[in-house]
Structure formats: structure tokens, C-alpha cells
Amino acid sequence: IKCLSIFRNSGITLGYLFLILALNGCANRTSNKKVKPNIVIIYADDLGYGDVSCYGATELQTPNIDKLADEGIRFTQGYSTSATCTPSRYGMLTGQYPWKNTRAQVLPGDAPLLIEPGSVTLPSMLKEAGYTTGIVGKWHLGLGKGNVNWNEEVKPGPREVGFDYDFIMAATNDRVPTVFLESGHVVGLDKTDPIEVSYRKNFEGQPTVDENPELLRMKSSQGHNNSIVNGIGRIGFMKGGESAKWIDENMADTFLVRAQKFVELNNDKPFFLYYALNQPHVPRVPHPRFAGKSGLGPRGDVILEADWCIGEFMKTLEKNGLAENTIVIFSSDNGPVGDDGYYDDAEVLMGDHKPAGPLRSGKYSLYDGGTRVPFILRWKGRVKPGVSDAMVCQMDFLASFASLLGIQTKTNDSENILPALLGESKMGRDDLVVQGMKATAYRNGDWSLILPHNGPKMVPWGVKNETGFTADVQLYNLASDLGQKVNVAEQEPELVEQLSNKYNAITQN
Ligand code: NG6
Ligand code: CA
Question: Which residues have CB under 6 Å of ligand 1?
Fold first, then answer.
């Protein structure tokens, strides 16, 4: 009343005041919309630095990923935290170095939830900022508290760590249970045919790779010798749930449709979608539309399939009028691998294609091929397209997007590198500890330091990737030696010491 009387004194009528308030409200809403762009992370599984044409692939074309790069920023030094799946996803969602949590290893399909319920995560931070949050695709961060009963609601899971909506595969496409879960419930489960899962022993009478090789359409080369589902040997044993089992050929379409639906249902409010593709992880089973299309075998085919999915997903964003107000990030959880457990001729049929591009090694490795991955950010109308050499890591999304949204959040390892992510600065991270198979290595400026490790030179179970383990210190200058071919540790003892001290200060803290 006092306020109104001030206006009366100044000659402003009540009607005029309401008009001002209304306009103000509109302005606020528009500016709200502006500062709260939707955020989508499209995350491939085992896609290498050289697997897409905008990063130099010539033997296969990925026009939809290339379009993202044309319209956004393509990072030449974009990293996952780790050279395997679970740790990288853990790092991206929690903003913490995964090697600080000894449980953050490639998890079996019956592992308990790895992320602490209620902790600060990328989705929980965004949820607090008013976002509707969803995950569609590969989870691989554990579910439940141990001894999960797959026939009831499975929790804690994505909803306990910040996601409003979840449509997921529990672990990987080569691990049981080979079913999807939506909001904690196995999709399409017939209660009279309950699911049982074990990573220790088979269920009586259930076919396994060792006992029933005649049922296989894809032979296992390493492990993958437990239950057979759809003619493919899996890791782990499973019984029941026949009506709920996925069809490998349809997995990509299934995830795409759910991701599109999530966008359509939430097109009028800020949303965060983590769209975690299944490709090109093994078993590589493209939909028949893509089978044989790349000329590079199933690994190439599923990369084409992934690229197509991205194109269709982007059409949905456009149709919903969200092309401009959405940050779309495309990246991968770790580097590439040829034979990762099945005879799918990935290595033979690859021809001249180089999945890691110019980088050394791939999945599981301490060399850059393990963790340096395609990394593109597109924010049409806001971010100027280009190429950036800034060192950026997926772990930094948490602190960077918190900063974008003005949210105060306590993060340990996640760094606010928002200006670099938006292409406004050339300065990303100064340094980064990357993780291979358990062990870690150090990136600082142009340098890559790998301290001596006792361990096999090659991934021991038959994967043809180098681990990065050697008895001597390794130091590489990535500016002049991107392929990490010339070890200059002996010529640069002072630098080795300096960098070792910095590395130890981070890892031994
Ligand atoms: C390995 C599997 C491999 C893959 C990997 C996890 C064997 C012999 N190999 O143990 O096939 O599943 O785990 O990949 O079992 S990741 O991308 O999810 O980290
Ligand atoms: Ca992976």
C-alpha cells in the first residue's frame, strides 16, 4: 500500500503499474530462458578420437557428428577421466577423480550403486537449478544395495543421484541382465517368469557358451562365455525374464525413441538429458538398416548407426524449437578397441581406418588414445563455431555449468572452465590426471608423463592395445609428438622431477 501510494504521488495509475509488472514478468521469463539453456550430453561408448570424419577419419563418414562440429566447437584436447567406462561416467557425473574411489572400476551388472545417494552430481546440481533431468541409455554405475531383486523396483539408482527420469541398460550390452529398466522397473517383465542374475554360477539348465556353442551366432574371443542371449555369449549368468530381454539390433532405436520422447515431454522447461549411446561397444550388432553399410565391418556399421541416431535426435530438437536454446555436447567415455571379446572381425575389416587417429593406443591405456576422445560443444546462436586446443575434461561439466547457472557448489576436482567450453578462452585446464587400467598418468601443458609401472605392456586378456606400463619413466611432448613415439624423459630430468612433484601432489593427497 505504501508502495502504491508512492506511485499515486508520482502520478502513475494502477493500470499502468500492472502493465509494467506484466512486462517485467515477461522479460524475466525470457531472460530466464536465456540463462537456462537445455543441456544434452550425447555420450558414445568406446568411440575413438579418429572414429569420426570431423576428427580426420577418411574411411567412414559421420555427417551428423560433423554438423555438430561445424556449428559448434571441436576440441582437439578433450578428455574423459579414464580409459574405461564406469570410471569415466563416474567422473563426469560426480565431478570427482574416479581413481579416488577404489570401487570405481568396470562394474559387473549386479554391482551396487557406486554414487552416493543425495551427493552433489551433475544432474542433482541441474535439478536444483530448476532443470528436469533424464538419462537414456547405458548406466553402468551400479544399482541397488547388493543382492538386487530385479522383479521389484530396483533402487537406489539414477533417481537417487539426481535424475527425474531414467530408461537404462543396467551395465553394458555384453553383461547380464540383458534388459532395460525404466524408472527402476524392468521393462516388459512377465511376473510369472522372474529374472535371476548371478556373476558366480550358472542356473541349472541354462545354456552357456562353454556347454552350448552351437547356439552362438557370434563367437566369443575373450571371456563372454557365460549365459547366451540372442545367440551371443555374455558376461554373467541370467535366468528368466524372457519377454523383457532386449533385441540387440533394436537397442539403438529404442534409446533414440526414448531420448526424443524426453525432449518432447519437456520442451517447455529447462531440461538436462544424458543420452548414453550403446555404440560402438561390443557386441556390435547393428540394425539391419546399417549392416554392411560402412564396408569396415560391424564396428564401422554401428558407428554409422550412432551417427544416424544423432541426426534424428537433432531433428527432434529442431522440431521442438530448441535448436538455439540447447547446449549439445558430444563425446565418448574412452578410446577405441578392436577385438574386445568377440570375433566380429573388427580388426581385419577396419582396413586403413584408424580408430584412435594419430593417438597412441586406445581403450584401457595410459597413452592418449585411452582418454583423448571426440569432444564437441554446440550452442547455436551463443557459441561461435571453431576449433579449440584448450585442454578440457568431462569431469569439468559440473563446476562449469554450475558457474553458467550461478549455482554455488562445492567441487573438488571439477574445474570451472566455462570460458574454454564456450570458446571464449584458449585456457582450459592446466593439468589433468588420466586413468588407464587402475593406474594413472599426468597431462600438463604439452606434456604427458607416465611414471614407471610394473605390469604387462599389452592388455593382458588379449586386447591388442598397449597399457602404457613400462619399467622406465616416459615423458612425451604432445605438441611435437602427438603419437607419443619419442620418450624424452632422459633428456629432460628436471622437467620429469617438476611434473612428478605436481602429479604426486594431486594423487597422493
Ligand atoms: C572387459 C570386457 C570387455 C568390456 C569391458 C568393459 C572381457 C574379456 N572383456 O572386462 O568386453 O565389456 O570389460 O567395457 O570380459 S567398458 O567400456 O564398459 O568399460
Ligand atoms: Ca566404454
Answer: 45-46, 84-85, 106, 140, 172, 174, 222-224, 235, 281-282, 334, 340-341, 461
Q: Which three cell numbers stand for residue 174?
A: 555384453
β pairing state of 386-393 and 73-79: parallel
Q: Which of 35, 144, 55, 75 is nearest to 406 (CA)?
A: 35
pLDDT for the residue numbered 409: 86
**CB contact set of 10 (below 8 Å; sequence gap of 6+):** none
Q: What ligand 1 atom has the least distance to the C-alpha of 86?
A: 19
| Predicted ipTM > 0.90 | yes
The Cα 92–Cα 431 span in angstroms is 17
Give residue 8's pLDDT. Answer: 40
pLDDT, one tens digit per residue, over 165-198 is: 999 999 999 999 999 999 999 999 999 999 999 9
What's the pLDDT score for residue 412? Answer: 85
Which one-letter DSSP state was computed for residue 111? P
Q: What integer pLDDT is reported at residue 442 of this predicted model?
A: 98
How wide is the angle at C-alpha 470 spanned by C-alphas 467 and 474, nearest 5°?
100
Alpha-carbon torsion 168, 170, 174, 177, what sign? negative
Nearest CA, atom 4, ligand 1: 340
In whole angstroms, what separates CA 127 from the centre of its chain?
Answer: 19
Residue 9 is predicted with a pLDDT of 41
* Distance from C-alpha of 440 to C-alpha of 483, rounded to nearest angstrom: 18
- Its pTM stands at 0.93
**Ligand nearest to C-alpha 199:** 1
Ligand 1 centroid to Cα of residue 295, in Å, is: 25
Q: Which residues of the chain have pLDDT under 70?
A: 1-35
Pocket test for ligand 1, best of 85, 169, 218, 237 (most atoms within 8 A of CB): 85
User: Cβ distance 113 to 156 under 8 Å?
Assistant: yes
Instruction: Report cis status (omega within 30 of 0) of the bond before 298.
Output: no
User: Alpha-carbon distance 370 to 360, whole Å?
Assistant: 8
Nearest residue to 446 (alpha-carbon basis) of 425, 477, 475, 473: 477
pLDDT at 19: 46
Nine-digit cell string for 150: 530385479
